[in-house]
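> tool_call: predict_assembly(chains=two)
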Amino acid sequence: MKAQLIPIVFLLIAASLLVFGFIFYNIFYGYKYQVQVFEITTIDVVRNLIENFKSFLKLSLTYSTLQSISEHGLAGGSIGAGAWICNGPNPLPASLSKKCLEEYTKYYLNIYLEKYNTTLPVDLKASPFLELNYDIDIDKILRGKYDEGNYWVNASGAFLIASSKDKNINLFEIFNTSDYITKNRYWYLFRIFTEWANEDVLTKCICINLGCACQTKSGETSCTNCLEESQYCGELALKSLQEKFDENVKCTFSIGCCMEGTADSGCEVSDCISWSSRCTFNCTHDCTKPPITTSTGIEKSLLNVPEQSYLPSTSSSFLSSSLQCFSEYWYEARFSSIYTFTCKDYKYYTSSPKGPKPLEFTVVAFASLRDKDICREKIPCDCPTDAVSCSDCRQTGCTPCS
Amino acid sequence: MKGQMEEILYFTIIIFAILILFTFFAYQTGTKGAEVRKTVEERITKEEVFSALNNLFSEKLPISEKYYLIMAIDGILGGEDYDFVYYGKEIGGFNLTSILTQYIDKLIKDRWRLEIITPDGIQVYGKLPIEKVVYSWENWIPVPYLRIGKVVFSIG
């Protein structure tokens, strides 16, 4: 009996040792396994978070680029652009537009980057993008290479540190992101406006029509006599601009300011020269660093220039004679006008806060000119009663009496 | 006789104990197998969802050359009909339900739901009712200008 019990007891003890061993193994090593699984899961979560972040940044770059392009189009190619015509061609350099686009795109992208967060128990520390580049060859812009877009925008230099709350897991990742811009005609609009500004139909028109101001009785006043000419020159410039674009672009213009005047020229002669009027616009192109403080209005002086008459006086102290002698008199006419030309591209719409809209490009052009001898009149000379020829008369104008 | 009976009894107990041990180990293995299978299926589902949503962020519709997600966001911002977006004379307009359904069905047939949430509105695509959602995945999305929205992709 005893002999039979011993092997049974031995077997039972062995079996119990197996079972308890298995249980303790699962408890201790299972726990370790559980921690490993937890860590792997956390790493998975953090890796997914980083992938999510990358995806977010990819789209952010697209929207940042489109926002910059839209705003720069509205501002005339650069935030801080001057007039593209200032008594002559003054188009914005393409390099300045590119540089400004890069600054603002980077600025907006970093704002999006800062807005990203997570509700997971993970600490995120993101560092902003340092470099952003539009992969564009400046020389080829005006040859039409980028008329439809088709260029890369590359951002680099950002990094992200993601760590679990207990600091057991730390992941560091450097971010570079790129977007290929297509179906966007910013540079097409830029190119055509540059060609148009270089032709400068506007200044020539203002110069030719300076004579409209001859009847103005003031040195400088808002247009009354020259309103039609101002409108005409605007329409002429618009026609010249519209003809350069294809049928998908529609252009309009508006007159921001129009001034006219006359002045005594002291019998000097000149061609069309610059006139410093109250109707002015900045002619210097610049890029205002973000955040934006745009000034889209036309600057006007608040000084009140008193009305002055520059029409010649015909009073005379001589007794009139029967001789009819005249002298030619000329005086200065002044005319200035500021225009805003806006062209909208209906071929491709671009994203905006109100959904896709046509891309707009707006440019300011102004001409402010005077011509010292454009207003001419024949005024009677002062002839004494005993004058026998015009040479006896006193010259009242700029030329001898005849 | 009595001795033999005792022997038979003891052998029966031993065999019974071995059988119990066997059953116990087999159960453990079986349970573990089920758990592992569940974990693998969960992982596959997560990967499916993650991959589908990643594609929405990184793939473009060939005709418009716009990211699918950007088209969905633009549709909401355009106002009125969130389901339609127009990109100009050359590209034309698109019905977003049709486009997104066609695209996502290639990855996960029918059992999906896509929710785009922006400050200006929310749009939902997909036939999966919310009660049948098994797994959801969400991410922030940029919204013009300098705003943030959310995309939630669910699978049933």
